[in-house]
Design brief:
Chain A: This is Cytochrome c oxidase subunit 2A. The complex is a heterodimer of chains A (46) and B (559). With 46 residues, chain A is mostly helical. Chain A contains 2 helices and no strands. The longest helix of chain B is centred in the middle third of the chain and has 34 residues. Classes of the chains: A mainly alpha (46), B mainly alpha (559).
């Protein structure tokens, strides 16, 4: 019983953090969009 | 043995009482000044916002640039410096077993020095003799009293740094081989940065004083600007590092979770300390007189600061997901629902973190030489600044007050006050989104910063900014409501809330976490590395500015 508990905890700790990576993807997306907006304006005005 | 006993008694007392009354008094005094500055600076900000939107004409006895200077000094220098010292000293007292008596004396002396300095700074601003904005670099010249005041402010902050170093060193002496508690580690990083960031600006002020007194005819503008921004940009990241201390250490506890990797946290602090000061150059990325190769190096040096921020983003999301899933959260993103959205101590710093996504993105993009040309000296920069400082940093500070003020005052956060905090947070978020959003947009359309309202002789482009500037005014109006609510909340929790015990929320490390390597404690080494990086960044351009100096500029009064 004790060993079952431990292995359950281990499995929980190793669960992939998919939501974290999606959230980090949003951060990357915002950086990219900001780059595109300002780069677009730079190219238009240069 | 006697030392151990005294230490043990102090630590036990701190555990039982939270904080000693003497230490609590220090933090309460500092926070009182900070939030008084917020109230005054907030009203001045409203005047500016309404003027900038073309809705209010300043009375003849009040100059727009005078208001701009006072707004900047009160919120950028006074609010942040006093909040940071009050906050970290409360945390150091709690985690290091109380402040040493000599440290208390030092930080009180620093307080007096800063207050004398602020009075000396404010008098010439009120007389309209120092409308040089908070950046105050030449060739604009203020009344000499303004710079004497700055010397006292800098001395006061240095004393707070020294007090921190003494207290941490004393703890390390008594806890050989142990890691400094993470909160005190953050405090060390912040005060190391403050200590070194003040050196260039002190040199600048000592260049300016003989110039404004008429002892020398001219001043090297480029050298002064460079010295200012070595301080100015570091100050921004000192606020950021202070806010992240709450994100890493406090927020996980509030949501019922544990801290992310202790090693990663300490590496982020070291990285921000080592790489920060050189970031100042991106404020000068389109200045003349700087070699292209040097600018190229500085773009990378500025972008490097983004890495610890991205590590922080991952760490925070991971803490949220892990905690929410333990509480039964499901789905790819459905677990977000399990976070305590009704708790202002979480909501405010969470929105602050979310705001840092566009704020950080703007910072990364505008550090690039060519792209900075699109936004440089436009209202975009003002919007960026309000998003980073006004949202990411200040809203974290607001969130901190809902547990820090009750903690140092021996009172509790009531459900009613929590509700008020939620309302304040929502008002502030809407206000700052409207204001900073409008500033970003008109900046992209070409509206310049650091100017009062003008239609430029009814120029069509300038007139096209007006509808967006109206949003700036609406945002500014909402923000003053937010300021009033926040100041009310702070003083209510300090003096009128029900008495009781409030915890200083410090999250534990995760169970079975890997041991943090001891090299993270080698502050001497990190300071040497920081100085090497600073030398790489500054020696060549400063030498060029001095060797190839143009004729010095006389003092100018442009207002």
């Amino acid at each position: 019983m004790e060993s079952t508990k431990v292995s359950h905890k281990k499995a929980e700790n190793h669960e992939p953090l998919k939501g974290t990576w999606i959230s980090c993807g949003v951060v990357g997306g915002v950086i990219l969009v900001t780059y595109l907006i300002v780069y677009g304006l730079y190219m238009v005005r240069v | 043995m006697a030392t151990i006993t005294a230490k043990t008694i102090r630590e036990t007392a701190n555990k039982a009482l939270g904080i000693s009354p003497e230490d609590a008094k220090i933090s309460k005094t500092y926070l009182t000044v900070a939030f008084s500055a917020l109230l005054l600076g907030g009203f001045l900000g409203l005047l500016q916002g309404l003027n900038r939107a073309g809705l209010l004409e300043m009375p003849s006895w009040l100059n727009y640039y005078q208001v701009l200077t006072a707004h900047g000094v009160l919120l950028i220098l006074v609010l942040t410096a006093f909040f940071i010292i009050g906050y970290f000293y409360a945390g150091m007292s709690h985690t290091l077993g109380g402040l040493l008596p000599k440290v208390r004396k030092i930080v009180w002396t620093g307080f007096v020095s800063k207050m004398i300095g602020i009075v000396l700074v404010v008098i010439p601003i009120l007389m309209n003799e120092a409308s040089v904005m908070y950046t105050f670099y030449p060739p604009m010249a203020a009344h000499p009293m303004f710079y004497f005041g700055l010397v006292f402010v800098a001395l006061g902050i240095w004393l707070a740094c020294v007090g921190c170093f003494i207290n941490v060193a004393n703890w390390r002496k008594n806890h050989k081989g142990q890691h400094v508690p993470i909160f005190a580690y953050f405090a060390t990083g912040v005060f190391v940065l403050l200590f070194f960031a003040l050196i260039p600006v002190a040199i600048e002020v000592f260049m300016i004083i003989p110039w404004v007194l008429g002892w020398v005819d001219g001043i090297n503008v480029m050298v002064s600007r460079t010295l200012f921004w070595a301080f100015g940009h570091t100050l921004v990241n000192i606020w950021y590092l202070s806010a992240t201390s709450a994100w890493y250490v406090v927020v996980p506890k509030i949501i019922g979770g544990r801290r992310w990797s202790d090693t990663l946290t300490r590496v982020v602090i070291i990285a921000l300390v080592v790489m920060n000061i050189t970031g100042g150059f991106h404020h000068q990325i389109i200045d003349p007189g700087i070699d292209e190769g040097i600018k190229y190096m500085h773009v990378f040096m500025s972008l490097a600061i983004g890495f610890p921020s991205l590590m922080t983003a991952y760490a925070m999301f991971a803490v949220f997901e892990r905690t929410a899933r333990k509480k039964g959260g499901k789905g790819l993103l459905g677990w977000y629902k399990k976070l305590p959205w009704g708790d202002v101590r979480f909501l405010a710093p969470f929105i602050a973190m979310a705001a840092f996504i566009p704020a950080g993105a703007g910072g990364i993009v505008q550090s690039t030489n060519q792209l900075d040309q699109v936004v440089h000296n436009t209202m975009w920069i003002v919007g960026h600044f309000h998003l980073t400082l006004g949202m990411s940093v200040v809203m974290t500070f607001f969130g901190i007050t809902y547990w820090l003020v009750p903690f140092i005052s021996g009172r509790v956060l009531t459900p009613k006050m929590n509700k008020l905090g939620i309302i304040q947070t929502i008002i502030w978020t809407i206000g700052m989104t409207l204001m900073a959003g409008a500033m970003h947009w008109v900046g992209l359309l070409g509206s310049p910063r650091r100017t009062s309202y003008s239609t430029y002789f009814d120029n069509a482009t300038a007139l096209s900014w007006d509808p967006y500037l109206f949003f700036l005014a609406i945002g500014g109006t909402l923000l003053i409501i937010g300021v009033i609510l926040q100041v009310y909340a702070v003083f209510n929790m300090m003096f009128f809330a029900p008495k009781g015990e409030t915890e200083f929320p410090l999250a534990e490390e995760e169970e079975g976490a890997a041991k943090t390597p001891y090299w993270t404690e080698r502050w001497g080494l990190w300071i040497v590395v920081m100085l090497i990086v600073v030398s790489m960044a500054y020696v060549i351009p400063l030498t060029e500015f001095i060797v190839n100096a143009p004729p010095g500029s006389p003092p100018l009064k442009t207002w």
